[in-house]
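Regression test attached.
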Amino acid sequence: MKKISTQLKQFQYFYPYTVALVGARSGTRVNYMACAWHTALSFDPPLFGILVAKKRLTHQVITEAREFTVNFLAAEQVKLSAQMGRISGHERDKVEEFEVKLAPSQVIASPIIAEAYVSFECQLVDTRTYGDHDLFVGQVLAVHEEEGMFNEDGVLNPRKVSPLLYLGCDFYVTVDPDTLKHVVPD
Amino acid sequence: MKKISTQLKQFQYFYPYTVALVGARSGTRVNYMACAWHTALSFDPPLFGILVAKKRLTHQVITEAREFTVNFLAAEQVKLSAQMGRISGHERDKVEEFEVKLAPSQVIASPIIAEAYVSFECQLVDTRTYGDHDLFVGQVLAVHEEEGMFNEDGVLNPRKVSPLLYLGCDFYVTVDPDTLKHVVPD
């Protein structure tokens, strides 16, 4: 049986989404937030999009820096995701308070998150408002990947890393590597 | 140890992403494709974005129909995802050939996929080109959800449904419900 709603009280049906820390440095300010609303946009050139509400400090920092990094977290880092997602950089310096380890980027000035299993360095190429969020579009200039986490085609190995997945309302889950399948049409 | 690449040979590091069938009806033509590049864009109004390459028949059908549906698949439906993802509607009538069960929408004219555990009816409100894909932005006018799959706050229950997750290169996986956690900052 299906229930049909035309007046949405919540909008979380699309989860689970992977969690990334997204942010940048502008001047002396460095700030990141947990972000589950993101998607690849293009293979060639490689473009990646993240959604950030205007009220977030991360919005201001990325807009000023014209660049950002995207840093994917493993399930073990769920506490960091909660801290970076539920607390605003306007109120507290999250990087200092939660002792987030940063590492230098190769191409851009803003740092990556050292503990992420894969990070993208992005140059901001477009910003567009959609409702209550802005889409920041980044051209991916460099990728930092933890060795052994991806196969030679760049496919994540779920026996090596358990990606953190968000379900909404502070619920998280990860994948079951025993369910891995390779399926092509007959 | 981290490996740094500035010349990308592949771009799949962001997976796993949930798989949705996206498509529409235009005149007598109804076509869907499997889509892993999608994201929520806004809560209020509820906006949902999907990425579709220009060469896909789905691109043409959605552009003509000015509307589309988004239909999320469970892990058991992996074969359907492979068929709808790897075969072009330009060559074969996938809905007929694979006996995809459709159901009427409540608000728009294009049908939903009956087997999906949750479906969105979307009105096309923006189209924007990013590299080799176009972002179709839909305002969500109605949601069809299989009863019992989501809690009262709209959070997916991974003991009731195993969402199909794509890893790239025809690899799929799903979640482990035993890893479900509710985590908030101290």
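Expected vs. actual: identical. The mean pLDDT of chain B is 96.
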